[in-house]
Amino acid sequence: PEKTSIQVTKAWEDGNNQDGKRPNSVKIKLLADGKEVSGKTLTLTKANSWTGSFTDLDEYKDGKKIEYTIKEDSVGKGYVSVITGSMKEGYKVTNTREPEKIKVEGKKTWNDKNNQDGKRPEEITINLLKNGTKIDSKVVKKSDDWKWKFEGLDKYENGQEITYTISEEAVEGYSTEINGYDVKNSYTPEKTSIQVTKAWEDGNNQDGKRPNSVKIK
């Protein structure tokens, strides 16, 4: 009987495994005229360059040419599988996964007795840090309700989850306290003092009526 073979190649579209979710291996099954062929499974790995072949396959059955196709066991982890190609050219299985995205959002709290001294600035600058390195900044104003948001941020890099933090450009006269992605600025209203001196014009207490003390409010 005439024999044939079918080559299968795996391709990944996942940002070079940016999120670290790519499996170590995948299983490809062979179908003949739509039915799974027992014992015909390929295991594709990085070690075999994600390429393999089904060999020694009968080309005909009952005088009719067999139509061979393939299917892939579900990879999961957010991957979508698409099979292209043909028996003659070989099949290509492409697994696509969009890198996960997150957002960082926070708000400002002012602790300055409702801006009693009028020292509160018109705007502040919030910096976004990725694993300790500044990558973005936003100017935040009262019209923003003193809130900020950084969106579309990669959750992973080289398979490792990214740590995002924030910092604030110094606000003159205010101390800064950061809690997660929220910032509290505190200002202590300025104080002053007033000296009071009492003078007597009573003939040096001639009549002996001068009190021993007075209260000033």
Automatic annotation (TrEMBL):
Gene3D superfamilies, sorted: Collagen-binding surface protein Cna, B-type domain
Start and end residues of each stretch annotated as Disordered: 1-24, 197-217
Domain (CNA-B) ranges: 6-96, 104-185, 194-217
Superkingdom classification of source: Bacteria
SUPFAM superfamilies, per database record: Cna protein B-type domain (SSF49478)
Entry coiled-coil feature ranges: none
Transmembrane segments: none
CDD domains: CollagenBindB
Protein name (record): CNA-B domain-containing protein
Lineage: Bacteria, Bacillati, Bacillota, Bacilli, Lactobacillales
